[in-house]
Each structure stands twice: as structure tokens, then as C-alpha cells.
Design a protein that fits this description.
Helices cover 60% and strands 0% of the residues.
Length: 124
């Protein structure tokens, strides 16, 4: 079990699942779990966390926007990455936005961590 997996498990146990998650908390967790690790992208996330009010509720579309922008900013992103991102975004057409809780956000993080090229910022 990796340190990131241990941290994810700890977060899933310690924080009640129905607790709303804020955007700054999302950003910190993305970095803490190693999902975003490229120094340039981490700096961008930290700037975002500093500018977004601490009480800003995380939403599904907001998270998708953050992750999409990170892909676009990545220095090794290719046309294939942009096409894959466009396909993911197309899949959300007609889906209503929703507020994220720790449970829903951590489930997304778990899926990202299990994906073959899960680290936004390592490779591309």
C-alpha cells in the first residue's frame, strides 16, 4: 500500500462522507495524494487555493474545470490529451452540476489514482 493510498484511506475514515468539501480543500488533497505533482501545476493550484475564498463549495463541474485546465497547462500535453479531455467533457453534456462532499470527491480521487496515467503533472 502506497503512502498516497494510506492517506486516501485515512481521509475516507476520518472525515464524515457527507461533509461538504471546499475548493481549497480539494486542491490540497489533489497535491497531498500526489494526483498533481508537477511543480508548475502545483504552484498554479496553490495560487488558486490562495485566491479562492476558503468557504467556496466544491462542485463537480468546478473540479472538472480545474483538472481540465491542469491538463491544458501541462508542458507535455499533446493533441491526444486534448482530444481525450474533450471526450470526457462531452460525456458531461446534459449532466446537472452538483455539490461535492468528501465522499464523492475522494471517490473521484480514488478513480484518478487507479487510472493508468493518473498523475497530472508526471509524464503527460
Amino acid at each position: 500500500m502506497t503512502e498516497a493510498t494510506k492517506m486516501l484511506t485515512l481521509l475516507q475514515v476520518v472525515v464524515p462522507g457527507d461533509t461538504p468539501i471546499s475548493v481549497p480543500s480539494e486542491i490540497r488533497i489533489l497535491e497531498l495524494l500526489g494526483i498533481v505533482s508537477n511543480p508548475e501545476l502545483t504552484n498554479a493550484l496553490n495560487l488558486t487555493a490562495a485566491l479562492v475564498p476558503a468557504t467556496t463549495q466544491g462542485t463537480l463541474f468546478g473540479l472538472i474545470k480545474i483538472l481540465g485546465n491542469l491538463v491544458k497547462m501541462h508542458p507535455k500535453a499533446t493533441k491526444a490529451h486534448y482530444e481525450a479531455l474533450a471526450e470526457v467533457l462531452k460525456g458531461f453534456t446534459g449532466v446537472p452540476d452538483s455539490l461535492l462532499t468528501f465522499s464523492s470527491f475522494l471517490s473521484i480521487c480514488d478513480a484518478l489514482m487507479k487510472a493508468p496515467a493518473h498523475k497530472i503533472g508526471k509524464g503527460a
